[in-house]
Amino acid sequence: MNSVNAAAKHFGVPGYDSIFDYWRGDITLVAEPPGFSGARLPPDHFYTGPLIPRDEFPLPEEVKNIPRDKPLIYFAMGSSGTASIVANIVESFRGKPYQVIAPVKFQLSRFSHVDVPANVLVTDWVPALQVNKMADLAVIHGGIGTVMTAALAGKPVVGVGMQMEQVANLAALERLGVAIRVGKSRNPSEGVQRAIEKLTLQRDCKSEGGGLCQNDRGVGWSPPCRRDVAPTLWNRSIRIYR
Fold this sequence. Notes:
Rossmann fold; six-stranded parallel sheet; 10 helices
């Protein structure tokens, strides 16, 4: 925050005491369902429920045609996944008794060569909710979008958080009993494989995540939030811009 506060001082406007103040507006909308984190929101914060895109583009043919004779894992690390960690985890899938859909081409493109195992299908971006529903388990980095998508699909999660916000998201899923969190390291693949093995043996947890996000048809604004936020936002806007 030092650079931001230096700029604020230069232009004679108030600075910020913390990163939390920086991300706080007159009204702050929290894109997760009530009860996910267990946090008590301040009066000017409101839950919207998860904001998840649906059917944003067609499912690639190679994903449609992936063999389904073995369990299927969805491996996605968003845009913030560390490339070397992504490559290590991809290579750790070699010889395992499952198929993997891995939309991580962006991260792997940073290397001249990655030895992609035969049971791993590396792709560009895919419609995440649709592929999560196909899979038996998700291995993700813990961004709120990937976490909410896996929960909405009702799939257990193995998570490797790259940043503190992602670690916190995964910890919330872990407290709800639908995830195993693996600590970030240069090569967390051994921990990821142990977690996958444990979760595939505990298949009863597969259906527990789905109830987490299923309000208002599973996505978007929950009814209490829609009722409370709209008039509040309107009244605040009138006061601010009169």
